[in-house]
Amino acid sequence: MTEFPLHSTVYVFVHGAWHSSAQWAPTQRALAELGAASVAVDLPGHGFDARLPSGYLLPGQPGLLTEKSPVAGVTMDACADAVVTVLRQVRRYHTVVLVAHSAGGGPASLAAERAPELVDRVVYLSAFVPAGRPRFIDYFGSPENATASGQNAYLGDLEAIGALRINPLSPDPTYVEGLRETYYHDTPADRFDRWRSALSPDLPLAIPLTPITLTAPRWGRIPRTFLRCGQDRALTPAAQDLMIAEADKSFPDNAFTVRTLPGDHSPFASRPRELAAAIVA
User: Fold this and answer.
1) Is 233 part of any domain?
2) Which end of the chain is more exposed for a tag (fewer CB within 10 A), N or C?
3) Domain tally for the chain?
4) Which UniProt keywords apply (predicted)?
């Protein structure tokens, strides 16, 4: 069997709420242009295999405000296991860099805590870091994030539904524009129509609500970078800075390297080449 040389580094991408591996494709193409290998993870409850509310794709979307989420039972453990599985598959590379976006910071952090030998660096892209506070909701609901937009996008009773539910396929142009302005404000409306069609409606509640404990001998020993999104309206720069500061206070022997990207919460859509270059750097 012929052995082909491998690039020395592989980047493993973990998406955020309602997203999937598919949204990383433009960034992965940009990385390939730079000669870098990458793979993207689908967390349980996301991606093209995720189960949808029964009326989501039907005319009028019956039951969307009340139906129990078919992914309500997804756990943080299952999400972390999905990341660890991919990390084990790529450990043959010399260097493995784990890149997490937004709510994906929780599963990625827990995976790194459980298997630090599989990760050489963690990159947080405007992502949850559970080093100072254990749950994403603890930062999402902090005073530093009070000016964030998007809370009006959630549908129904989240506890009864078992998920944070949005409606990416809403026929209401005001609602759709609210989603774009919160998460994709640098992406033109006509392009956002295509991006939103690939989103899932449900984020399992375990992802923002499950507490995660990190330790110095495991997660704390891994070099880490935080890529701030400078005009983020979903997770404000102030909230990002709070997570960085509290992580560095909790783990002072291994502080974050911090860089700032211009623009919105979703640079994988608005500036994938710039994002790829920042990740490689």
Assistant:
1) yes
2) N
3) 1
4) Hydrolase
Residue 2 has pLDDT above 70, yes or no: no
CB atoms within 10 A of CB 106: 30
**Residue 1 lies inside a defined structural domain of this protein:** no
Compute the distance between CA of residue 104 and CA of residue 208 in angstroms, rounded to an integer: 9
* 78: number of Cβ within 10 Å: 15
Domain region containing 269: 9-280
CATH of the domain at 129: 3.40.50.1820
Angle formed by the axes of helices 105-114 and 76-90, nearest 10°: 60
Element (H, E) at 151: none
Task: Find residue 12's DSSP bridge partners.
Answer: 39, 98
CA dihedral 123, 150, 47, 98 (to 10 degrees): 0
Indicate whether 2 belongs to any domain. Answer: no
Is the pLDDT reported for residue 5 higher than 50?
no
Residue-wise over 220-230: b if at least 16 C-beta within 10 A, else e? bebebbbbbbe
DSSP states of 75-109? -HHHHHHHHHHHHHHHTTSSEEEEEEEGGGHHHHH
pLDDT of residue 150: 84
- Amino acid identity of 164? L
